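Bumping my old thread because nobody answered last time. Still need a sequence for this structure:
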């Protein structure tokens, strides 16, 4: 299960998606999310799916890596589907026991909700897979830079998010090592009821927290040794500049979002 958590991983490449400015990718994914939550019909969902498939094909990220990241949320998908199936009022699907509780509208909502969550996660994961944590930090800080005028700690916020993304794979690897060591000593994490499984995780959480605090202390010491004192007066090694392909992608996603909203208004 731990190996299925792929958030924070970065797959280097030279594709168009990899070369895009991080600000472009963050803005594009925001527009993509708006369009995805606006979609309400088969036509609009088909358009969003086509856009996602095109982006995946251009980025050359393996579809297996994206689908693997969906495994940890299977329970959420099932729960969401069941809630929509049995608790949505509408036209009964059939007059057979449980099927009487399932409506046509509930089935439609369940399918749309699952598609929305799947495409949302795959789209956002695609950004992290094709953008390094440092680039994401620079892009986020640049986009939020107007908030500096109201003394909002933009640099510190971007730095915290970057560090969190950077250490997610490290902590997952550390957890896997601790679990393997505990299993070698006879620990059992898979048998028993839910309460027993939760108790079995205590021997994992304690050393994991100790390791996380130790890494945080080492990182703080390293930053102090390098005279880090926040964002004031800092310069960037790679200056972000928008190019023609960035403007083209931004224009495309703006048109996409506007088109999905227009189709919704028109009843499609």
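Sorry it took so long. Here it is:
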């Amino acid at each position: 299960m731990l190996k299925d958590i792929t958030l924070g991983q970065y797959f280097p490449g030279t594709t168009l998606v990899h070369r895009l400015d991080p600000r472009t990718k963050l803005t594009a994914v925001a527009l993509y999310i708006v369009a995805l939550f606006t979609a309400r019909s088969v036509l609009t969902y088909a358009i969003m799916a086509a856009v996602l498939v095109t982006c995946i094909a251009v980025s050359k990220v393996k579809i297996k890596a994206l689908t693997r990241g969906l495994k940890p949320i299977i329970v959420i998908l099932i729960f969401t589907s069941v809630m929509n199936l049995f608790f949505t009022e509408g036209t009964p699907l059939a007059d057979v026991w449980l099927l009487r509780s399932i409506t046509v509208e509930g089935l439609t909502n369940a399918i749309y909700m699952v598609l929305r969550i799947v495409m949302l996660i795959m789209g956002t994961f695609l950004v992290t897979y094709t953008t390094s944590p440092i680039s994401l930090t620079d892009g986020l800080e640049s986009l939020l830079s107007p908030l500096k005028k109201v003394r909002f700690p933009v640099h510190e916020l971007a730095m915290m998010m970057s560090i969190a993304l950077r250490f997610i794979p490290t902590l997952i690897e550390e957890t896997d090592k601790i679990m393997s060591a505990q299993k070698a000593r006879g620990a059992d994490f898979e048998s028993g009821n839910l309460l027993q499984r939760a108790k079995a995780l205590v021997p994992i959480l304690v050393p994991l927290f100790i390791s996380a605090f130790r890494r945080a202390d080492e990182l703080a010491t390293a930053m102090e040794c390098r005279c880090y004192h926040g964002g004031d007066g800092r310069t960037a090694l790679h200056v972000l500049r928008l190019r023609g392909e960035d403007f083209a992608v931004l224009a495309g996603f703006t048109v996409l979002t506007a088109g999905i909203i227009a189709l919704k208004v028109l009843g499609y």
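The longest helix spans residues 154-184. Let me know if any region looks off to you.
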